[in-house]
Amino acid sequence: MSNGAAAANGSSTPTHTPSQRYLSTRGEDTGLSFEDVVLKGLASDGGLYIPEAIPAAEGWESWKDLSFVDLAFNVLSLYISPSEIPADDLKDIIRRSYATFRSDDVTPLIHLQDNIHLLELFHGPTFAFKDVALQFLGNLFEYFLVRRNAGKEGRDRYHLTVVGATSGDTGSAAIYGLRGKTDVSVFMLHPKGRVSPIQELQMTTVLDPNVHNLAVTGNFDNCQDIVKALFADPDINSTHKLGAVNSINWARILAQTVYYFYSYFSLARQNPDSFKIGDKVRYSVPSGNFGDILAGYFAFRMGLPVDKFVIATNENDILDRFWKTGRYEKQPAYGAAAEGGLPADGVKAHEDGVKETLSPAMDILVSSNFERLLWFLAYEFASSAGMDDEWTKKQAGQEVATWLGDLRRKGGFGPVYRDVLDAARRTFESERVSDPQTVEAIRTTYMSVGYVLDPHTAVGVEAAKRSLERAPEGTKIVSLSTAHPAKFAGAVTLALQGEEGFEFGKKVLPKEFVGLEEREKRVRDVANDWRAVRELVREEVEGEKTEGR
Ligand SMILES: Cc1ncc(COP(=O)(O)O)c(C=O)c1O
Ligand SMILES: N[C@@H](CCOP(=O)(O)O)C(=O)O
């Protein structure tokens, strides 16, 4: 499969290159514009949007000294036609999105130890990597809505009803990206009692009238399923324009692609003697919904020299099991949980199969973005038949629809064809990191270099170390640091309590989090029932529209 995999297919958007037109992974929606897919979020056939072709980043080497904002403009313009967003407007959206970050580098790279560098992605407003995409997406929604609503009044205005699911971080990042914006209501579903106390406070202390926090009796996957059920419901879709902030929204993946390029150039700048532009780098990515690592895959397919992506999972290890067995199954047929009862490392497994770990944002049973990778793997497999591009794409869409149908009906699919698995293994490898190993990674990192890792980042660092043991001598790895440690006080304190010089309040806690628990909160409990959520959404949006917001 080449970088510019597609030829133009006679789509309805002739001013767009193939990488600026979008199709659904399940094959039924094609030829959509960037604005269409950003506002729709999820395709009507239940699939996720992907560009019809991955563009080659021609001359990417010359981007090496660009600021984050200028680099972002170069990357994003390959996927967004200037006929949709003129260049100056896109530059302005990007500039405003990253002006809210506490670091001039936006996503600074630091040397951790040996050949491991950390890509710090938590310098945005909510101290999590999600801000990189959600600050941008919030401004993008606003841009499209202002344009659509020019000269319109009252009920003629396009009102976006954002519904999202969070295991902790997407929620606050989306809320901070959208709070107070005109013509948008935000409904954020989190699993009640299964996000960290700081994460919960970050969401529930935002009192803007357009923000609604819903605590669902259930797990993250139940929240994600409710969101998908709402998108699939013709009833609410005819009365409300639903919008997505989860990584099912293509703009989330696209914005995250930028920091793979940026970190690559930072690595070259910081290591002039041992890493040159053109050398291959390895990335370790703490993974749950597979969005962050998929953004890296796009950067790689655009031409960034990457030797491997390491998928780092916690004990909710559906991805790790896929890479080991070729089977994608909610319930493991092998490994700790299959050995009967609680696994040896003592993690609590809920009846629903999701384990409650020290890295709760990754407590996810089914990784929604894996579907996008599956499409590219299926496309590559189908292209060996030597048919034309239209046939090949159709075939890929059908294959994905069959796999996802089996996942829904039978709880899993696979083993996939050997060639598909081999292709997945050429670009990715995987590691599963248990809670005790996570604690140990936080402790040993602190003891050796004095750096405090958050538990998700620790999963990535532990996987990075294991991967380097297999890698060719001198390989450099960038491990993604996806959240600030202060968001996960329990895990960090468990690992570091009593260690010399460690004091959570002084060493870890940023001033922005002090006093959060004293603030007023707003949250509603809801059952794990998508119809009940639908009625609540209707009621609230009606109220907002009546008040003219
Ligand atoms: C802190 C943190 N790390 C890692 C992840 C996993 O990222 P992804 O879901 O994109 O795989 C998440 C949640 O998405 C997260 O919040
Ligand atoms: N870990 C996420 C779960 C939602 O994933 P998303 O990237 O698809 O929004 C979270 O913290 O909410």
From TrEMBL:
Which key words are in the record?
Amino-acid biosynthesis, Lyase, Pyridoxal phosphate, Threonine biosynthesis
Q: Which Pfam families match?
A: PALP, THR4_C, Thr_synth_N
Residues modified as N6-(pyridoxal phosphate)lysine are: K130
Task: Please list the GO terms describing molecular function.
Answer: pyridoxal phosphate binding; threonine synthase activity
Query: Transmembrane segments in this chain: where?
Result: none
Q: Source organism's superkingdom?
A: Eukaryota
- Region Disordered, annotated ranges: 1-25
Pathway assignment reads: Amino-acid biosynthesis; L-threonine biosynthesis; L-threonine from L-aspartate: step 5/5
Domain named Tryptophan synthase beta chain-like PALP: residues? 107-334
Comp. bias intervals (Polar residues): 13-23
The EC number(s) attached to this protein equal: 4.2.3.1
List, as start-end ranges, the regions of compositional bias called Low complexity: 1-12
Q: Name one GO biological process term.
A: threonine biosynthetic process
Key word Amino-acid biosynthesis present: yes
Domain (Threonine synthase N-terminal): residue spans on this chain:
21-98
Give the matching CDD domains: Thr-synth_2
Cofactor(s) needed by this chain: pyridoxal 5'-phosphate
Q: Which reaction does it catalyse?
A: O-phospho-L-homoserine + H2O = L-threonine + phosphate
UniProt record similarity statement: Belongs to the threonine synthase family.
- Please give the function described in this protein's UniProt entry: Catalyzes the gamma-elimination of phosphate from L-phosphohomoserine and the beta-addition of water to produce L-threonine.
Q: Which NCBIfam families match?
A: thrC (TIGR00260)
Protein name, UniProt field:
Threonine synthase
